[in-house]
Amino acid sequence: MTELQGLIETDRLATLSINGSESLFWDGVANIYTSAIVWIPLALFAILLLIRNINPKKLLLVLIMVAVTVALCDQLSSSVCKPLFHRLRPTRDPYILNMVDTVNGYRGGLYGFFSGHAANSFGLASLFMWLVRDRWFSLSVGIWAIINSLIRTYLGVHFAGDILVGAIVGSIIGSLMYWIYYMISRKDRSRRNVHDSSLLYTRTGFMRSDVFVFMCVLFGTYTVIMISSCITQGLA
Q1: CA–CA separation, 172 vs 179, rounded Å?
Q2: Residue 20 located in a structural domain
Q3: Integer Cα distance of 78 and 221 in angstroms
Q4: With the CA atoms of 57, 63, 68 and 70 taken in that order, what torsion angle do they form, in degrees rounded to the nearest 10?
Q5: Could you tell me if residue 91 is inside a domain?
Q6: Looking at the domain assignment, is residue 77 inside a domain?
Q7: 90: phi then psi, degrees, rounded to nearest 5
Q8: Number of neighbouring beta carbons within 10 Å of residue 205
Q9: Whole-prediction pTM value?
Q10: What residues make up the domain containing 82?
């Protein structure tokens, strides 16, 4: 029990070190970053990336794996673990709630273990990393998943431990979904003709030009978020 209490205290300290800042700009960035609307273009390009690079016979199966990944991560967090563990969010924790910075008064629900945002982010990132198999793509979506998760701690609605466990669970689920996809689809021998060219295609046959466009949209979204935050703070 003493060791558990020590972990809880360490988690509180780590959370407070990440949570909040004195910058209205970064508060604005965090607020916009967590908006689903800003990520719609990237989601559409992710679907386009799959459509253009996955064999039509396998495409439906891949889309099902994506949907199942999101559903499992979300439901395991919200319907199983949060009601089971009853761990209060930082904004609800009586020991630190007065020290937690919030943005626009957002405090989240009552319980936060484990983070569904982190699970979904790392679940999708892991699945796409396995599907595409490109170093720079993996680095890009990995960074996206990390930022998308830690921003929840910045906003004060998740402990660092909630994020860590969510990231682990999501990575396992995403990898498991890829393994299931691989085991089902490997019987189909039809493959894209990659011409043995690593300059044009990734190890799994994705066109590098399509992967590059996807990463441009990702970093373009970051730029839009930054500019939007500047404009918002200028108007405020």
Answers
A1: 10
A2: no
A3: 28
A4: 160
A5: yes
A6: yes
A7: -55, -35
A8: 16
A9: 0.91
A10: 34-191+200-235
